[in-house]
Amino acid sequence: MARILVTGGAGFIGANFVRYTIDNLPQHEITVLDALTYAGNRANLEGVEDRIRFVEGSIVDEAVLEPLVRECDVVVHFAAESHNDNSLEDPFPFIETNLIGTFRILQAVRKFDKRLHHISTDEVYGDLALDDPGKFTEATPYNPSSPYSASKAGSDMLVRAWARSFGIHMTISNCSNNYGPYQHVEKFIPRQITNVLAGATPKLYGEGLNVRDWIHVDDHNSAVHAIVENGRSGETYLIGADGELNNRQVIEMILEMLGKNAGDYERVRDRAGHDLRYAIDYSKLRDELGWKPRFTGFADGLRQTIDWYAAHEGWWRPQKEATEAKYRKSGQ
Ligand code: NAD
Ligand code: TDX
Fold it and tell me: Where exactly does CATH 3.40.50.720 map onto the chain?
């Protein structure tokens, strides 16, 4: 049994982590610390609230953070500003939460000698060419492109420095693009699903040839548990599930699964600095920890995700109009 402090536990991946833990590892005690930004939503924890302790507050706020870290065994740190497009419009919250917030967590785990698992992204490695046969590995040099990915790269570097300089017990995971229930409608897959459900046209950036390496959120979270339980302190593990597809393929699949013509989408302004391709080699995680993904068929996972959004209009409707208003302003 462990007392786990989950930062960002009211967001997409964090809330799924809480649910996954309650369903599969119910011996653990969970405290969620979440600032409930536009991306955080108490409704993501509906049905499990009585199984956890929920604290509303920011990881930047030492007065809130420190007692929670003191009382836990391990911090699983999901809290972040997570959307590339937002980081292009207004980078400051990314600097504050992803860098200063992670710094505060590091100081607290150092002070109370606690274990930290830091959740990060494959975007810290920059991008690969479309015709590059290679994939990212733990040895790929950092080369982030956007304010978001630079802030995550910086947070990873801080975690490594605190391990080397102060001997904190930590692991880091860098995961590829997640999909599944409770993902904010600003992100690619839920935006397109809810566009179709709302009678609007799906929006593809540029030519749509950019490749993302999709992983179901439950596979990300089972890998996080494998690392928290058996990962070696000081190590980084890449998490992926061999899910490479370009955006055009994904948008066409969504349209077809919802009974529309595959070509019923609109091309909009491309993202500035748009990364071309992400691809993960997860052999270290597989070979060292024996982890493997459960959702190996993207089409099945996507269908299940579409069904979830179709059945939960009351969850996504309140975010939809404000999100699309933001996109309209930036011509996307
Ligand atoms: P999200 O935006 O859905 O959720 C982020 C959560 O963090 C929200 O609940 C928000 O309220 C909370 N938060 C933000 N600032 C905070 C602060 N200062 N203090 C406390 N809580 C705060 O993001 P997500 O997609 O669930 O991503 C979670 C983590 O996983 C992030 O660290 C992200 O970089 C990483 N990641 C995401 C993906 C992906 O595909 N979504 C892939 C790899 C890694
Ligand atoms: O409307 C859209 N149309 C479109 O073509 C949106 C919102 C996105 N896109 C494209 C941009 C990307 O190539 O789809 C792809 C995926 O976009 P996002 O969902 O914004 O994800 P991405 O930028 O790849 O980053 C995601 O994966 C890595 C997460 O948001 C990050 O938090 C994570 O670190």
Answer: 3-179+215-239
Short-list 211, 209, 213, CA closest to 174: 213
Query: Is 58 near ligand 1, meaning CB less than 6 Å away?
Result: yes
Q: 102: closest CA among 56, 21, 159, 40?
A: 159
Shortest-distance atom of ligand 2 to CA 250: 14
pTM of the entire predicted model: 0.99
What is the per-residue DSSP string for 198-214?
Answer: TTPPPEEETT---EEE-
* Identity of the amino acid at 27: Q
- Ranges for all domains in the chain classified under CATH 3.90.25.10: 188-211+243-278+295-319
pLDDT of residue 187: 99
117: Cβ below 6 Å to ligand 2?
Answer: no
Tell me the pLDDT tens digit for each residue of 245-281.
999 999 999 999 999 999 999 999 999 999 999 999 9
User: Does the Cβ of 220 fall within 6 Å of ligand 2?
Assistant: no
Give the ligand whose atoms come closest to the C-alpha of residue 265.
2
Q: What is the C-alpha to C-alpha distance for residues 288 and 299, in angstroms, rounded to an integer?
A: 29
With b for 16 or more beta-carbon neighbours within 10 A and e for fewer, the 55-85 pattern comes to eeebbbeeebbeebbeebebbbbbbbbbbbb
Would you say domain 3-179+215-239 falls under CATH 2.60.40.1180?
no
**Rg over CA atoms, the chain:** 19
Nearest residue (CA) to ligand 2, atom 8 = 188
Answer whether 177 contacts ligand 2 (Cβ < 6 A): yes
Q: Is the CB of 327 under 6 A from ligand 2?
A: no
Q: From the CA of 264, how far away is ligand 1's center (Å)?
A: 31
Which CATH entry fits the domain spanning 188-211+243-278+295-319: 3.90.25.10, 3.30.390.30, 3.30.450.20, 3.30.1360.20? Answer: 3.90.25.10
Which mutation among 212, 216, 268, 319 tests ligand 2's pocket best, with the greatest number of atoms within 8 A of CB?
Answer: 212
Interval 273-300 mean pLDDT: 98
**Cβ-contact 137, 242 below 8 angstroms:** no
